[in-house]
Amino acid sequence: MTYVSDGLNLTNDLQVAYLRWSGTPSLNAYMTFTIDQEVPSTFITSLTQADTQINLPAGHYFAQAYIDYTRTSTSQNNQFAWLVNGTVNGHKGSSDYFHSNTCDVAETAFTLDSAGTLRLQITGVNGSTLSLNDPHCVAIIWRVDK
Amino acid sequence: MSFKKSTESKSPFTTSTSYNTRGATAFNESWVTVSGTTPPVASISGQGIAMASTPVTTGSDRVYFTNSNYLEQSSHCYYSFFQTYVTSIDEAIASGDTFSCSGVTNADNLDATVSRTHIFKVGY
C-alpha cells in the first residue's frame, strides 16, 4: 500500500525513558543510573562512567530528576543539577528549598545537535549527607527526533 | 503520541528563562510569546501542556493556571524560615494555548529566582 503525503503532515514520535538513580549524595558526586524502561522504543545509547553518564543521540530533550530521601534532621538538604555535555543546565532540584535558590525537581530542556551526555550531580549539601531512598529516586527523559 | 514538526530544528519542549512575582516572563523557544506582567500571559500556536513549580517568598499559597483551578491542577507551597518540608512544592498543570498563573491568597509572591514553567507543545 502506498500513501501520498501532502508534505505538511510530518510527525515526530515522542519517546520517554524512565530511570532510577542512586548513590551517596555527597558534594560534587555523580549519581548512578539504571534504566527501567524506554517507550515506545529505546533511544539511550549506553550508560558509562560507572553508570553515572547517560549517552544520548541527537534530539530535542526534556529531563526531570525527582529525589526521595531519608534524613535525621530538617537541616539536611541536598541540591542537585543536570549536566549536559559536562555543563550545569536548567533548573536545580533539591531535597528541600535549598538556600532559597532551588525548587524540588531538577529539570532541563535542551537540544543535542549530535551525540551528547547527561549526568546528575550533587551541587550542594546543607548539613550532613542524607540518605537516598533507592529505588524511589527517579529520572524521566523525554525525547523527540531533531 | 506524536508531535507534528513545525520545522526540522525547533524543540517541542520549552522552559522559562525569566520570572517575575506573577509568572514566567520569557521562554527559551521562539514559538512562545509573552505579553503583560501582572500576570504575564504565555501564548503558543496550537496546543500545549504547561507545568509550573512555584515557591513563594512569604506566606503560603495555592497556585494554578487560569481556568485550571481544580486542586489536583494546582501547586501548593509555603515559605518557612527553616526551609523545612517544602519539598511539597508540586507542579500546577494546564492544557491549552495561553497560560498565566493565579494565586489564591498571595498572587504577588512567587519566587522570581527559582520558579519555573515548562510547556510541551503537542499539536497545531
Protein described:
The complex is a heterodimer of chains A (146) and B (124). With 146 residues, chain A is mostly beta strands. Helix content of chain A is 0%, strand content 54%. Chain A has a single domain (15-144), classed as Jelly Rolls. Chain A has strands at residues 11-13, 15-22, 32-39, 46-48, 53-56, 59-66, 69-70, 77-84, 87-94, 106-112, 116-126, 131-132, 138-144. In chain A, a hairpin with a 2-residue loop joins strand 8 (77-84) and strand 9. The model of chain A is unreliable at 1-8 (pLDDT under 50). Chain B has one domain (13-123): Sandwich (Jelly Rolls). Chain B has strands spanning 2-4, 13-20, 23-27, 32-35, 41-53, 60-65, 75-78, 91-99, 101-103, 116-123. In chain B, strand 2 and strand 3 form a beta hairpin. Classes of the chains: A mainly beta (146), B mainly beta (124).
Radius of gyration of chain A over alpha carbons?
Answer: 17 Å
Structural class of chain B: mainly beta
The amount of helix of chain A comes to under 10%
The tally of helices of chain B reads 0
Provide the low-confidence segments of chain B as ranges.
Answer: 83-87
Order of helices and strands of chain A: EEEEEEEEEEEEE
Q: What would the CATH topology of chain A be?
A: Jelly Rolls
**What composes the largest sheet of chain A?**
5 strands, antiparallel
How confident is the prediction overall: mean pLDDT of chain B?
82
Describe the structure using short key phrases:
heterodimer; A: 146 residues; mainly beta; Jelly Rolls; 54% strand; disordered N terminus; B: mainly beta; three-stranded antiparallel sheet
